[in-house]
Amino acid sequence: MPDLAARLHELEARGLMRERRVVQGPQGPHLEVDGRRLLSFCSNDYLGLASHAALIDAARRGAAEYGVGASASALVCGHMQAHEALEARLAGFVRLARALHFPTGYMANLGAVPALAGRGDAVFCDELNHASLIDAARLSRAEIRVYPHCDLDALERLLAECRSPAKLVVSDAVFSMDGDLAPVAELAGLCDRYDAWLLLDDAHGFGVLGEGGRGTLAHFGVASPRIVYVGTLGKAAGVFGAFVAGTRDVVEWLLQRARTYIFTTGSPPMLASALLASLDLVEREEWRREHLRALIARFRAGVRGVPWRLLPSQTAIQPLIVGENRAAVALMARLRERDLWVPAIRPPTVPAGTARLRVSLSAAHTLADVDRLVEALHEAARDEPARPSAAPRP
Fold this sequence. Notes:
Aspartate Aminotransferase, domain 1, 4-stranded mixed β-sheet, 17% strand
């Protein structure tokens, strides 16, 4: 048997141990953690909807109408009227022909990628893709070809060399740890040129980017029958779950072949009811995205002069590269002493030498909240300057 105690000790020695905190009360910019009230910059609740009264009321009504559990897989008796209405609403919202609802974004990717590519085919992955896309590519048993982050020339060379019968390019639309956007229009153009599918995981763009929060496709004005669009519903939408949208044939194929859809119990219908209420707010309340953009600008201007490298992100994800694992953890601890909760992200989530603080901004934050974080970062820099961060990747 492997010596797990020794392995855990090694993780701790390398500054890679993860710690789970217990949060009391509803999600929001202020969280009660271990008896302390912390100003949180951890959450992906980008629009501040996770504890919105309209969503809570909709979930209660859904529970009263449908009960709590779906009781079976969607293809048995677990697909209920609330799910049907949600799929229709999601498809219309992102302006694609049809959508399929999954319990989580991880399951959506694990289902969609192997359904679209298999043994003998080729999957092309950005090197900074989310773990769910990496695992989905491995599960497909297709040949995996990794290209440097957003390097279109490298991707085109790989596509041009490929003789596989089916080709699938998979990419985050907004990269979850760097906060930058994929070159979506150019990716779609390459897929048109080389007869490939393009699967975009828009977990961090859906609800935030584009007209009405319709996501990264709307942000770039891109449409193509080759695009398979994945959106998650537990971040900006404030609830839980995910969906895959595309042409009618693509979605029907996934319904028939995506194992993570076929062989799992359906999502609780009361969550679908809450999501229908959420989509109305996402679409209608543009002020949330406007305020979020103001917070992003305030933060980026405020941290000028700190010794840590701020990545060039214009999204709600604002990464400060610290470099060494223990230095990132120490900076997180210094902020926590000031009742601020900002997570330190370390390998394997990010490449070695790029440990960072991942600052997540939400429309529920105020400008004063951001100012408080900025002041604390400057104080931490004066107290104990951080070690130089790793050089940026070419």
